[in-house]
Amino acid sequence: MSARLIAYGRVSPSELLSWGPGGALHTSWEELNAGPVAEYGTPKLRAKFFFDAPFTKYGRMDPLCKVAVGAAQLAFKANGGLTGLEPDEVAQVGGTMLGCLEVDAQFEKSRQAGAPSPALFVYTLPSMFQGEIAIQFHLRGRCTLLSTGELSAMTALATGIRWIEKGRAKHVLVVAADAAGPAAAELGPDFGAQSAAAAYLLSGDGEGRALSDSRFDGEAGDAKELTSGELSYGTTFVDTLEPLLLGSESMRVHASRGTRGVSFKIG
Question: Which residues 6+ apart lie within 8 Å of 266 measured at CB?
Fold first, then answer.
């Protein structure tokens, strides 16, 4: 059984994107009156950018949860919610490079000041965004989080494809996300501190782009080698993969960093 991409959502410094087999919806930050893009990649994220109904808890989330939950909502909206999917059968695969780095740094400052923040401590777990997604969308399938540096998004997506191919899940929500701030900026000049997230809703049923044959740490061979785009950290390759994933051409794609690589077939 091959996986099918039935919906996709992306949050990035340039815009929001929501895609389903029927087409794509691009929404600029200007259209949302979101204000200027902040130093670390997006305007201040608000629930109203993603959700039609009030969602007060969103405002209390840390930046990683906000960007990840927002991307997941864009994917679910493109699918008409959980239409045709049983929550018990929707698994999650997450990908992140930075994880909860920013919250860890903030919490440590509060601890050193003698007043450890309970509100921050809740989010000192890199998989917390998956917990928030599970709560908001009532997902009760298996769940895992992967961190493979700049290949995190590709590794997570390839793992979701494999889960469906191997019959380990009927549907998989893959979310790759990173939220950058002052702590990430200290990692050095190789990365421009930036926040972004992408959500891929995969299913073994229905219409959508066929995805199959995930491979890890192999040679590129005759696959199309992905280059780095404008996104960084664990979402590196998301924007260069996107037009191929949402297009109509069939091909194998491959992304690599050093001796490590990830590839899968599209179409």
Answer: 209, 210, 211, 244, 245, 249, 250, 251, 252, 253
DSSP state of 61: S
What is the C-alpha to C-alpha distance for residues 130 and 82, in angstroms, rounded to an integer?
Answer: 17
Residue 163 near residue 169, CB atoms below 8 Å: yes
How far are the Cα atoms of 49, 107, 141, 257 from residue 229, in angstroms, in the given order?
A: 25, 32, 32, 14
Which residue from 228, 21, 230, 253 is spatially nearest to 158, judged by alpha carbons? Answer: 253
Per-residue HEC secondary structure of 73-87 comes to HHHHHHCCCCCCCCH
First to last CA, the chain: 13
Residue 177 near residue 74 (C-beta atoms within 8 A):
no
Q: Provide the 8-state DSSP code for 137.
A: H
Taking the C-alpha atoms of residue 44 and residue 57, their distance in angstroms, rounded to an integer, is 15
pTM of whole model > 0.90?
A: yes
pLDDT digits (tens, 9 = 90+) for 206-255: 889 999 999 998 888 899 999 999 999 999 999 999 999 999 999 999 99
Cα–Cα distance, 267 to 126 (Å, whole number): 32
Residues 6+ apart with CB under 8 A from 173: 72, 75, 90, 91, 92, 93, 133, 137, 139, 160, 199, 200, 201, 202
Judge whether 222 and 18 are in contact, CB under 8 Å: no
CA distances from 101 to 87, 98, 126, 160 (A): 30, 6, 8, 25
